[in-house]
């Protein structure tokens, strides 16, 4: 599978297999709403489910578009999901936390695994000093754990009472990929 | 021969500017700073600046005292947002305190006080490098459980480092009678 890289700047795109990662733009609002408003998708995320396009538009403008690394996962040019990397600062700058979601109708087709593999290629190339990408997964989110394992992540541990999700303190599995 | 210091002589309290000379005892010691992310302090001014601008205003940072005299420090760094249920413990003492039960007692007191002072704190974690056996023993004796090895987790002093993550949960922490 050929990976086409931009010049290591924010406007880079990359393809692996059938999916392409690119930056979001305002025109993507409706597509983004499809999974951001779906409780079945957001139930495993720290995100609150979006109930209005206005609120999502504000999020797109204020958070997604200016973000250092927040990409649309595209299939045939259409956004079907997102993946983002949040890099730490100072002594934590060697690591980034990855988060992702895909619209429900594209589940179980291998898209998410391809998107994660692409993220590994792009993220380590583009983010200065990055040596580790980690992902937190709720224990019942078996599908996401499988995606990470297929992409080459290692499960490092089970961390009880780790994070607030929708107002409840939850246990997490921690996965990482290091270079 | 190791001399044990009785637990009742170890106490925690807020830092004061008058602790600066005692602070210099551990902060200027290369052996103490070896496993810390900070470089040794070079001057009294530097120490005074740290105590007044960092130690005293910190949300949770206590002096570790033996017979009322500061011999080290212990801090709890709370997560924000989704991470507010957890906090990271950090501690340092002068080298003459090592091997006498002082550090273990300080950590036990610190954990108890932090869970009391911060009611929605559910998890305290400690990060220790694999070569730092003494600190691993302190956490184990204080009731922490080792969860796993986090690769390439932090970078400082020119190196990206691996850390064992230890945890103690408020649910597991024995509630002791307080005088």
TrEMBL record, chain A:
<dbReference type="GO" id="GO:0016747">
    <property type="term" value="F:acyltransferase activity, transferring groups other than amino-acyl groups"/>
</dbReference>
<dbReference type="InterPro" id="IPR016181">
    <property type="entry name" value="Acyl_CoA_acyltransferase"/>
</dbReference>
<protein>
    <recommendedName>
        <fullName>N-acetyltransferase domain-containing protein</fullName>
    </recommendedName>
</protein>
<feature type="domain" description="N-acetyltransferase">
    <location>
        <begin position="19"/>
        <end position="176"/>
    </location>
</feature>
<dbReference type="InterPro" id="IPR000182">
    <property type="entry name" value="GNAT_dom"/>
</dbReference>
<dbReference type="Pfam" id="PF13302">
    <property type="entry name" value="Acetyltransf_3"/>
</dbReference>
UniProtKB/TrEMBL annotation, chain B:
<dbReference type="InterPro" id="IPR000182">
    <property type="entry name" value="GNAT_dom"/>
</dbReference>
<protein>
    <recommendedName>
        <fullName>N-acetyltransferase domain-containing protein</fullName>
    </recommendedName>
</protein>
<dbReference type="InterPro" id="IPR016181">
    <property type="entry name" value="Acyl_CoA_acyltransferase"/>
</dbReference>
<dbReference type="GO" id="GO:0016747">
    <property type="term" value="F:acyltransferase activity, transferring groups other than amino-acyl groups"/>
</dbReference>
<feature type="domain" description="N-acetyltransferase">
    <location>
        <begin position="10"/>
        <end position="162"/>
    </location>
</feature>
<dbReference type="Pfam" id="PF13302">
    <property type="entry name" value="Acetyltransf_3"/>
</dbReference>
């Amino acid at each position: 599978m050929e990976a086409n890289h931009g010049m290591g700047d924010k406007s880079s795109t990359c393809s692996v297999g059938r999916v392409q990662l690119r930056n979001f733009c305002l025109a993507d609002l409706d597509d983004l709403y499809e999974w951001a408003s779906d409780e079945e998708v957001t139930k495993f995320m720290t995100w609150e489910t979006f109930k209005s396009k206005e609120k999502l538009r504000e999020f797109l403008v204020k958070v997604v578009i200016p973000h250092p690394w927040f990409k649309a996962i595209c299939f045939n040019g259409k956004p079907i999901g997102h993946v983002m990397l949040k890099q730490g600062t100072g002594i934590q700058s060697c690591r980034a936390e990855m988060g992702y979601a895909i619209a429900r109708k594209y589940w179980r087709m291998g898209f998410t695994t391809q998107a994660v593999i692409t993220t590994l290629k792009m993220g380590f190339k583009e983010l200065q000093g990055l040596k580790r990408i980690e992902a937190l997964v709720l224990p019942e989110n078996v599908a996401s754990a499988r995606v990470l394992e297929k992409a080459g992540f290692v499960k490092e541990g089970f961390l009880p009472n780790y994070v607030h999700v929708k107002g409840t303190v939850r246990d997490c599995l921690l996965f990482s990929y290091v270079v | 021969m190791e001399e044990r210091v009785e637990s009742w002589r170890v106490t925690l309290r807020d830092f004061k500017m008058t602790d600066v000379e005692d602070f210099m005892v551990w902060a200027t010691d290369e052996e103490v700073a070896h496993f810390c992310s900070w470089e040794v302090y070079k001057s009294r001014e530097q120490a005074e600046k740290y105590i007044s601008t960092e130690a005293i205003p910190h949300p949770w940072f206590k002096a570790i005292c033996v017979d009322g005299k500061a011999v080290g420090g212990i801090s709890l760094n709370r997560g924000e947002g989704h991470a507010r249920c957890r906090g990271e413990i950090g501690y340092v003492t002068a080298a003459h305190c090592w091997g006498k039960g002082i550090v273990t007692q300080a950590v036990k007191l610190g954990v108890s006080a932090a869970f009391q002072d911060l009611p929605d704190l559910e998890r305290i974690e400690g990060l220790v490098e694999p070569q730092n056996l003494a600190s691993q023993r302190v956490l184990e004796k204080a009731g922490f459980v080792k969860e796993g090895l986090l690769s390439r987790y932090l970078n400082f002093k020119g190196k990206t480092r691996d850390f064992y993550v230890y945890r103690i949960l408020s649910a597991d922490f024995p509630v002791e009678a307080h005088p």
